[in-house]
Amino acid sequence: MNVTVVSSLDAFSRQQACAALAADTPGALIVFHDLLEDGLVVRRIFRDGNRLEQAESRLEHGCLSCTVRLDVVPTVRRLSTPTTPIILGLPAAVTSMTAVHALLRGLGASVTIDAVVLACAPDAVEDQLWDHHTVFESGYTPVPDDDRTPGEFIIGELAFSDTVLLADPALVPVDPATRARGVQLINEVAPHIAVTDHAGDVRPGRHNLAEATARTAAGSVRIPAESSSPFFTVVQRIARPLHPERFRLALTALAEGSCWLRGRLWVASAPECRIAIQGIGPRIWLENTGPWQADRDSLPFAIATNPDAMLDWHPEFGDRGTVLAVTGDDIDPAEIAALLTACELSEAEMNDDAALFPDPFGLNHPTESTPRSTS
Fold first, then answer.
1. Distance in angstroms (rounded) separating the CA atoms of residues 47 and 52
2. Is residue 289 within 8 Å of residue 201, measured between CB atoms?
3. What are phi and psi of 64, to 5 degrees?
4. Which of 169, 214, 234, 272 is packed most tightly, with the most Cβ within 10 A?
5. Which DSSP symbol is given to 69?
6. How does 262-273 read in b/e, with b if 16+ C-beta sit within 10 Å?
7. pTM of the model
8. Low-confidence winner among 190-194, 248-252, 308-312 (lowest mean pLDDT)
9. Which residues pair with 41 in a beta bridge?
10. For residues 363 and 275, is the Cβ–Cβ distance under 8 A?
């Protein structure tokens, strides 16, 4: 059974993308799930433009993951045949990673993920990255306790997906310049991804789960070979630990003009902890992801299976160090370099065994995230 997974922030883009994919794949089943208020799930199934089924069910816990586990996976299992491809239109704001892992757990080797597609209106992407509301507050999901921002969803989907199918729902006129700018932003943020207006360009077999999972790992940095003007990405590497208080003061300036900031930090207040940082639009947060590879057991295997550790291995510090990538259209590489260099511990601070460093981020707690902050 071959499945194409389609995610989106809004049902209009998803609908348009699924219809285009179905037109290019005669005989395919389109399966839509929508989560409404009070846990109501609406399921619709189409083939060649004809509705075959519509049903409703109510979940005791009306969350997005329960929708996938309790309705999406059982529906795909029921419809599965070796010869009929399925186009799976996920509920708005459900991540494709959630769906793919649930399908593989529930159906095992009987399911092949042909493609993972993000359907989006390119002229809306930049505004969605800068939206400071939650996906619930912005009306994308009926789940009140979903505190993700639209930008968090978009960045996560761009990392995990293999294709972006551009959709322009005929709700308001599209400005060509804004649309082109949105496409450039997508290409800058997700250099691995195929961006297309045409469903026929969505190639089966393009999705690689291992690579997609690596791209979404906290602290991972992937950058384009060439920038998509007017957007560009600056990567800064610092070998020594960062002074936590100096870095806290520099963080707002580092994030200004940046629509996406990400990477990993070596902070003097938690030197044995690999700290992942991510800033999407107006929100920045740090997460303690546990020890560095250099501090783990089975070191040769750990290095071989961690591409970031292999690429950034230092003869003295191992994979410990700061790697920060900043993407935007109004960023100054020299200023970013100066700000981060000023945060680096001095030689005297490195050699002071009695030095005590403040912990303004609350990082010295393995595998815990710090509260999100607004830059």
1. 7
2. no
3. -70, -40
4. 234
5. I
6. bbbbbbbbbeeb
7. 0.91
8. 308-312
9. 35, 57
10. yes
